[in-house]
Each structure stands twice: as structure tokens, then as C-alpha cells.
Design a protein that fits this description.
Elements: E1 9-10, H1 17-21, E2 25-26, E3 30-35, H2 41-52, E4 59-63, H3 69-76, E5 91-95, H4 97-101, H5 105-119, E6 123-127, H6 129-137, H7 146-159, E7 163-169, H8 179-182, E8 185-194, E9 197-207, E10 217-222, E11 225-228, H9 239-245, E12 250-251, H10 258-261, E13 266-267, E14 271-276, H11 282-295, E15 300-304, H12 315-322, E16 326-329, H13 338-352, E17 356-360, H14 362-368, H15 371-374, H16 377-390, E18 394-400, E19 421-430, E20 433-443, E21 453-458, E22 461-467, E23 474-475, E24 478-479
Parallel strand pairs: 3-7, 3-8, 4-5, 4-6, 6-7, 14-18, 14-19, 15-16, 15-17, 17-18
Antiparallel strand pairs: 1-2, 8-9, 9-10, 10-11, 12-13, 19-20, 20-21, 21-22, 23-24
Length: 489
């Protein structure tokens, strides 16, 4: 009978990274942090080191033909995670430049072994390991056997029960190097410039003994250090459970007569798309939705992309934010990703225990994203809606549409099928006047009104009137019947 070995997982101290790794970093693993210059390899290594190192679990940081330790420390001190008191106590820096320049891998290995034996570290970092590789390739010494060096180093570190990190500059994953095979873990960092934005992504290409989250995960380097935006879902009921167990629970919209049109209000846990042209009152409806929630003791979160917060015309909406009933997300960074925005929303949902979320608007949302993230906008939007509703939120999204007067569309992205309910707003021309009309197009698994209703906007918000008589539906002075053209994926 065999006994299953338990592998202890270390918390890296990097927000989001443990989720991507599948629960943390395996203790005593032999890892490579790879990527092009400037992508954050050294910063990632230092952030993990300062989080993990203690007097009982000391760390050694070997520098090899890279930045001198003093220069490297000068820049790493700018991050919040840096702790001056840890230097020469739980963390020691050792310079291997002279040994590497000599070009003898056996001597480099001997020096590493002697330092490890002297200090008995639990964590070992070698930056940049790529320099060792290049130095070995320029020597004619027949004793320089790189595969053997890598295997010996990995075996020794495992024997000493040290968790090891080799930091190296590699430009493509196809680089031929024996370390890729020997390493237990391979963390690959990427960065790309798109117009005026710098987009950084991380991939866990390999991590033995545990399932990792596949794919590319965006990350940002801030004064606090690196923050990874993993596709983690906030614990809570999933969307299917919410629709099943709370289908009878309806949220009031805060607009007179709109709840009636929706069949009694918006089912809790649903996603609602409010589509309409500029000036039709989408943001006012969204503000009323949050205001009604506050009246009933509910908190909310709003992500604004269309206009600056101080330009929001609804004074009550401003007051809700000032009083703490509604959290505002208003990031205008040029390299935003949907994953980062979802993390912002989930953080505020958790902080306020919020049940209502507004995205205003999808049109501005798409423009706020870095160009590389706009390519798969529809797929990412589907994930965002699912994640937010799974967290127990009821989501209202607005979408800017061009009013074509003779048809009715829901979304320029082909995303109407992603939402549980749709309200559409539009203009019609009647006797040389523009009238606003509203219709409920869809409420999943629920009866709802199919009427076109006239509405207006005054100091109290949206005021919905009676059903639009068919004979008053005039376009260009001619009677016409309004058509609904469903948005196709």
C-alpha cells in the first residue's frame, strides 16, 4: 500500500497569483521565471521573496551578470513590499559576477553550493540564470556541460529542501534549453505595446503536481508590486441557482410603471441590458435603479465609462456615492482589461455586500479597454456577466445605439443573447417632434409587457406614459408600424 505524499503549497504574497497557480507554489519546487527584458521578472521574484522569507525560512538571492545588488536594491526599495529590516537577516544577496565571467560552470555551481551549505536557505533565487547559459556557450572549456549543470543544481536544491527560482531572459517559448525540461514550474511573463498602452500577461506553462488555471492572465505593476487578474469567481450561488431559487424575488427599478412592464420588477440575479441612442435616458434609468436599491437597504456598485463622475447630472446619484451606499469605479488607465475591471467590481461587491451593479456603458467600456482586449470583447463580456451574477449581483448594463428610426436594435456587439432581460429606448418623429418611446423586449422565463410606451425626462427622472397608439407612429409624415429587429450573434 502506497502513501500519498502531501505537497505543501506556499502563499506567494502576489495578489491573484495563488489562484492562477492552483492554490500556491509547491514547496521545494524548482522553478523558472522567464520572459523578455522589462516584463517584471525581478520584481515578481522579489515580491515573492519578501513575502515568504523569515528568519526561520531564510532566502538567498544570487545575482549573475545582471544589475549589481546595490543598484537592484535601489529600485526594488520603491515597492511597498520591500522591507529594509529583512536584508542580511532573513534575506541575503550574493554576487556571482566574477565566478560567471570566469566561464567555468563547475566553479559557479561550487560557489552556489558553498553559500547554500553555509546559510541553509529555504528559498534560493538566481538572477539572471540566462547569463550563466550565455557564459557557458562562449567558452571552449570541454568541461562545460550545461544539461549536467542544470540537473545537478536542481537535484542539490531538492536535496537541501529549498524552493528555487531561476530568473532568465527568454524571448520565445521555443528556445531550446534543458532547464525547461528539468524545471518543476515555468512561469512565463509577456509584455506588448498597443498604441499608447502597455499590456502585460502571465502564463503558467508548467507546474508539476497541481492543476493551474490555463491561458494568459493580465497583470499590472503598481507601487504595491505585481497584481495578477485571474479569472476567479467570487464564492456564492451560481447564476442558475439564483434564477431557480429566487425567480419569484423581484427588484424594483425606481421608475414608475416600469416594474409593471417587466412583469412585476426585475428578477433578482438577472442581467439587464438597457439599449438606446444618446440622450434617451439610459444613465438616468441606471441611477434610479441604484437609488431604489438604497431606499430598500441595498448597496450597489457602478462602473462609469461614458462620462466623468462630476458630470453626472443626477444629484441623488452623486449623494448615494458620497454617502457610501454606492461604490464608484472610474478607471481610465489605457491598458485596462475586462479581468481587471471584474476584479475591481468583485472587490467592491464584497466590501459593501452589494446586490446591484451598473455598467455605464458597454460602448464606453469597450473603448476603455486596451486594443488587444477589444478583439475578444464579446467572449469576455459573457464571462463578466456570468461572474457578476454568480457573485449574487443583479446587473444593469447600458449600451449606446445609433437610432435608425425604422428599426429597433439592441446592441452593436451581438451580445443581446447574453442578458436575461432587455429594455430598449428610441426616438420617433411625430408631427415634427421627437418623442421618446420604451419597450421591454425580453425577460427570460417571465411574462412581460409588449407595449411601446411614450416617456419623458424631467427633474424627477423618467416618467413613463401610456401605450403609443398605432396611428401616431409616424415616420417622415407617413403612418408606419414600428418593427423590432432582434440582435443576432
Amino acid at each position: 500500500m502506497t502513501t500519498k505524499v502531501t505537497i505543501n503549497r506556499l502563499a506567494t504574497g502576489v495578489p491573484g497569483l495563488d489562484d492562477v497557480l492552483g492554490g500556491g507554489l509547491p514547496e521545494f519546487s524548482f522553478n523558472l521565471i522567464a520572459g523578455p527584458p522589462g516584463c517584471g521578472k525581478t520584481t515578481l521574484a522579489h515580491q515573492m521573496m519578501f513575502s515568504l522569507a523569515t528568519p526561520e525560512r531564510p532566502a538567498l538571492f544570487f545575482t549573475v551578470l545582471g544589475e549589481p545588488p546595490l543598484k537592484m536594491l535601489r529600485y526594488q526599495q520603491q515597492f511597498d513590499f520591500f522591507d529594509d529590516e529583512a536584508i542580511n537577516k532573513s534575506i541575503r544577496y550574493i554576487n556571482l559576477v566574477d565566478d560567471t565571467l570566469a566561464g567555468n560552470l563547475d566553479e559557479v555551481l561550487r560557489r552556489i553550493v558553498s553559500e547554500v551549505e553555509a546559510h541553509s536557505p529555504s528559498l534560493v533565487f538566481v538572477d539572471s540564470f540566462r547569463s550563466v547559459v550565455l557564459a557557458s556557450q562562449t567558452q571552449t572549456n570541454p568541461n562545460n556541460n550545461l544539461p549536467q549543470f542544470v540537473q545537478q543544481l536542481g537535484m542539490l536544491m531538492t536535496t537541501w529542501q529549498a524552493t528555487t527560482f531561476l530568473i532568465g531572459e527568454y524571448f520565445t517559448e521555443t528556445d531550446t534549453n534543458p532547464i525547461f525540461t528539468v524545471a518543476d514550474g515555468l512561469i512565463w511573463l509577456r509584455q506588448s505595446v498597443y498604441r499608447n498602452s502597455m499590456v502585460r500577461k502571465m502564463e503558467i506553462m508548467k507546474m508539476r503536481g497541481q492543476p493551474t488555471v490555463p491561458g494568459l492572465h493580465t497583470f499590472r505593476i503598481e507601487t504595491s508590486g505585481i497584481k495578477v487578474f485571474s479569472p476567479a469567481v467570487m464564492p456564492g450561488q451560481n447564476a442558475v441557482e439564483l434564477h431557480t431559487t429566487e425567480s419569484s424575488a423581484r427588484l424594483k427599478m425606481g421608475v414608475p410603471r416600469l416594474d409593471e412592464m417587466l412583469g412585476g420588477g426585475l428578477p433578482r440575479g438577472y442581467s439587464l441590458l438597457v439599449a438606446g441612442p444618446s440622450g434617451s435616458g439610459k444613465s438616468i434609468l441606471a441611477a434610479s435603479f441604484l437609488e431604489e436599491g438604497a431606499k430598500n437597504g441595498e448597496t450597489g456598485v457602478v462602473a462609469v465609462f461614458e462620462q466623468r463622475p462630476d458630470h453626472l447630472r443626477n444629484a441623488t446619484f452623486k449623494k448615494l456615492i458620497a454617502d457610501g451606499h454606492v461604490a464608484l469605479i472610474d478607471s481610465h488607465a489605457p491598458d485596462l482589461s475586462i479581468a481587471e475591471i471584474v476584479h475591481m467590481l468583485l472587490k467592491e461587491i464584497k466590501r459593501l455586500n452589494a446586490t446591484r451593479v451598473v455598467i455605464d456603458s458597454l460602448s464606453g467600456f469597450e473603448l476603455a479597454l486596451a486594443p488587444t482586449f477589444q478583439e475578444d470583447f464579446r467572449q469576455s463580456l459573457a464571462w463578466m456577466v456570468s461572474t457578476l451574477t454568480s457573485a449574487g449581483a443583479t446587473v444593469l448594463m447600458t449600451s449606446e445605439l445609433e437610432d435608425r428610426y425604422n428599426d429597433l436594435r439592441f446592441s452593436p456587439y451581438g451580445t443581446a443573447f447574453l442578458t436575461d432581460a432587455i429594455i430598449v429606448q428610441r426616438y420617433i418623429e411625430v408631427e415634427s417632434r421627437l418623442l421618446r418611446i420604451m419597450a421591454v423586449v425580453k425577460v427570460r422565463a417571465s411574462a412581460h409587457s409588449d407595449e411601446l410606451r411614450v416617456y419623458n425626462i424631467d427633474s424627477n427622472g423618467l416618467q413613463i406614459g401610456d401605450r403609443l397608439p398605432e396611428q401616431e407612429g409616424l415616420l417622415g409624415g407617413r403612418p408606419t408600424r414600428q418593427r423590432l429587429v432582434h440582435d443576432k450573434p
